[in-house]
Design goal:
Layout (H helix, E strand, L loop, with lengths): L8 H8 L1 E3 L5 E3 L10 E4 L3 E4 H9 L8 E4 L12 E4 L1 H11 L15 H12 L4 H8 L3 H9 L4 H4 L13 H14 L2 H8 L3 H12 L21
Antiparallel strand pairs: 1-2, 3-4, 5-6
């Protein structure tokens, strides 16, 4: 039986509890991740950022294309008076004013700050789609997926539990990938055609083969372990 204390954002936060510091921040009584955020398990949603739960508990649902901002800049604070929603640009302006943007995040080809990468993972955990996140942050869906999968910004997101397991391709896509590999014998060709990195394509093909690719029988009409892949 699932405890009722995990069923709503407010009841989940009250079950954990918080302490009020001198600045009026409500500090969650849960160990923060290395990035400073706290994630809590909520029945039916798995792990959600505590600050996002707090906003939902005391302000209402988070509007689409919005991020939850801390006016106090304390990541494990859940005081609803310190929380508001805003746009991606609002979030960037907040961080600039607070001096929280690391120097390495504002030069070169970087399109996201470390905090924004964390927000993307937390938002995906909360059920926000990759297309919506891409539009919100002004980056491609591939870039969003790379953040979620830990291909990029892993140094700040690796400790955040992922609710949604890495999604493999559909059955049709599996079959297409296998046929292309059988025809070309090239993992890179599969990666390029389906938009994977080499390692991602190699892992998918190896799972299908159920053995080293060098030992697989390359028959485009027979996908090894097809009925057992789940």
């Amino acid at each position: 039986m699932v405890s009722t204390e995990n069923k709503t954002p407010e009841s989940r936060l009250r079950a954990v509890g918080w302490d009020v510091d001198d600045a009026g921040c409500w500090i969650v009584r849960a160990k923060p991740l290395k990035n400073g955020y706290v994630t809590l398990y909520l029945s039916g949603e798995n792990y959600v950022g505590a600050h996002r739960l707090a906003y939902r508990a005391w302000h209402g649902e988070i509007p689409e294309n919005s991020v939850v901002r801390h006016s106090c800049h304390v990541r494990n604070c859940i005081n609803p008076e310190h929380l508001s929603v805003g746009t991606h640009q609002d979030n960037m302006d907040d961080k600039t004013k607070a001096g929280r943007q690391a120097r390495g995040e504002i030069h070169g080809n970087s399109k996201l700050t470390n905090d924004e990468a964390i927000d993307i993972v937390l938002a995906r955990n909360a059920g926000i789609g990759t297309t919506e996140l891409a539009q919100q942050y002004g980056i491609s869906r591939t870039a969003v997926k790379d953040v979620i999968r830990g291909y990029t910004y892993a140094h700040v997101t690796k400790d955040i539990p992922r609710n949604v397991p890495a999604q493999g391709p559909s059955d049709d896509k599996h079959l297409q990938m296998w046929k292309l590999y059988c025809q070309t014998g090239s993992v890179q060709a599969v990666a390029d055609f389906f938009g994977y990195k080499y390692g991602g394509a190699y892992r998918q093909l190896t799972k299908l083969a159920g053995c080293k690719l060098s030992d697989a029988i390359l028959d485009p009409e027979v996908v090894p372990l097809w009925d057992n892949k789940n």
